[in-house]
Design a protein that fits this description.
The protein is α/β, with parallel strands linked by helices. Helices cover about 60% and strands about 10% of the residues. Helix 16 links the parallel strand 8 and strand 9.
Length: about 550
């Protein structure tokens, strides 16, 4: 932001000023050319070398100014888009709940594709608006100096273009907003179908999926064509008025030079040089209006994108604690809560020491997973405190606290790499970690051992084996506390017991274990148990 004491000109302002100067240089080029051809028509001698040199110098100056202006505008556009993209990515990384705009596909479309719609507006709209404010009045004054009739034609025909552009622009903005909404929805649909691709193939839903994409693509095509129809309509209106204006100027100049018209001037005959100059600058009077009309559609699309950004900014979503930077893990000594309340649920106070184990029970939707997220600093409580080593968890200590946590989510997730990479992400994996997670037998059955590529769906692993890989990943960093969300969900009794054995081995080795579960058998093996009931809290 520019402060009153900051003398630096913003790059977008400097770029717009340079584009205006480039257009003003054209008036000088037109004057040199009009004088040369006017002298030839009048039979006066003309120095072609001198005239050509002036034209080349002025054209070179115009090209240099225009190029510099575009460079400054491009830099300003890059900076603006980068700032918005960084803001969205940073906020989404810290958000603890999905956006109301849609899923990951919508947010990805906003950051990668939709923000790029700002670039044409940043490159074209502001310089076009400044040119209309400067170039058009200058040309109007020059025309009035030579002929009040030409000035009257330009004055009457010129303002009609922005009026019609504004009327068409309102419709263009609504059409652009609808088209951008379709882009986000199609991106969400693509992400959803790709995530379930293997399941869709197994149940034979491929043709139905293809048909749904075809319908969504047709809807997007219809929205896009609606925007293009409005653009073509506005271009037709623009060219009609500009062509009529230039034609009327040409008619008056032609008949005046032929001596057929004696009005429209200032009681002085129109010279060939002045007539040619008026013919050369008349199209330039409409050129900034053309540029503004073209940029008006860019601005409509940019307004639609910024409207979506403002909607995203206005969302009140829970945010994780801490900036999310890498930090050395803090040694675990104790974890406690006091008066914790979040989303209308009051949680019982707890206190955990090294070697403790806690089962968090309750019906679905009671807030078990939310409590785990609060303990990990992934959400900020509405009230109460989370105490780590008897000190309140804060923005300054949250990153170090999370670095020492092992997190085992309810749904196993994999990257398209080997089993070893899915556990250590490129770092060596300790044998102790493999043994604690119960992966030794699993690795022995895989065709290439821990180098077997799993893919993003964990191909070749059963549900229990996938949970063990997830557990090994959580144990890889030697955490002081392990937080597991429904680690035995959807598993048979024998597999669930084995997963429970692995979890308890971690606690017996001195680690602290917190488990949210519906599994009564697993909960009974924990040293402490608490029950959360949203209905009782309400």
């Amino acid at each position: 932001m520019i402060t009153p004491n900051d003398r630096t000109i913003p790059p977008e302002t400097l770029g717009s000023l340079l584009s205006v100067l480039a257009s003003l240089v054209w008036l000088g080029v037109a004057a040199v050319m009009a004088q040369a051809f006017g002298d030839l028509m009048a039979g006066h001698p003309v120095d072609p070398l001198r005239t050509g040199l002036w034209v080349i110098v002025l054209w070179g100056l115009r090209a240099a100014l225009d190029m510099m202006g575009q460079l400054f505008l491009a830099r300003a556009a890059d900076e603006r888009i980068d700032v918005l993209r960084q803001e969205i990515v940073t906020a989404e990384a810290q958000a603890a709940a999905p956006s109301a705009l849609g899923g990951a596909g919508s947010i990805a479309a906003l950051t990668a594709e939709k923000l790029e719609a700002l670039r044409p507006a940043l490159l074209r709209y502001r310089p076009a608006r400044m040119q209309v404010m400067v170039i058009a009045p200058v040309i109007l004054c020059i025309a009035a100096w030579h002929s009040w009739a030409v000035a009257l034609v330009l004055l009457l025909s010129g303002p009609l273009i922005p009026v019609f552009m504004a009327l068409v622009g309102w419709a263009a903005r609504e059409a652009s907003a609808r088209q951008l909404l379709e882009v986000g929805q199609l991106s969400d649909l693509l992400v959803d179908r790709l995530a379930a691709l293997s399941d869709l193939r197994l149940i034979g839903a491929g043709p139905a999926t293809v048909n749904s994409f075809a319908r969504a693509s047709d809807d997007l095509r219809g929205r896009t064509m609606a925007v293009l129809r409005i653009a073509f309509l506005s271009s037709t209106v623009l060219e009609l008025f500009s062509a009529l204006g230039v034609a009327m100027v040409a008619i008056w100049v032609g008949f005046s030079l032929l001596g057929e018209l004696s009005w429209g001037g200032w009681d002085t005959p129109l010279t060939p040089s002045a007539g040619l100059y008026l013919l050369l600058i008349a199209p330039e009077f409409f050129q900034p209006l053309r540029d503004l009309a073209a940029a008006w559609h860019d601005r409509s699309g940019a307004d639609a994108v910024m409207g979506e950004v403002e909607t995203w900014r206005s969302e009140a979503r829970p945010r994780r604690m801490g900036p999310g930077r890498g930090a050395a893990p803090a040694p675990f000594t104790s974890l406690a809560t006091r008066g914790l309340r979040h989303r209308g649920v009051t949680y019982p106070d707890i206190r955990l020491e090294p070697g403790s184990s806690l089962a968090v029970e309750g019906p679905s939707g009671a807030g078990k997973t939310t409590l785990l997220r609060l303990l990990a600093g992934l959400e900020q409580p509405d009230d109460g405190m989370i105490l780590v080593a008897d000190a309140a968890l804060s923005e300054e200590t949250a990153d170090a606290w999370r670095s020492g946590i092992g997190w085992m989510p309810q749904a196993p997730h994999f990257v398209n790499g080997s089993l070893r990479h899915n556990v250590g992400f490129g770092e060596p994996v300790a044998k102790e970690t493999i043994e604690t997670a119960g992966l030794t037998g699993v690795i022995g059955l895989l065709p290439r051992g821990d180098l077997t590529r799993l893919g993003e769906r964990g191909a070749g692993l059963s549900g229990g084996e996938a949970r063990r890989v997830t557990l090994a990943r959580a144990l890889h960093g030697r955490p002081g506390i392990l937080i597991a969300d429904e680690p035995t969900a959807d598993l048979d009794a024998d597999t669930a017991r084995r997963i429970g054995d692995s979890l308890l081995r971690f606690a017996e080795a001195g680690g602290t274990l917190v488990v949210a579960t519906h599994d009564g058998a697993l909960a009974a093996r924990m040293a402490q148990r608490i029950t959360i009931d949203r209905r009782a809290a309400v």
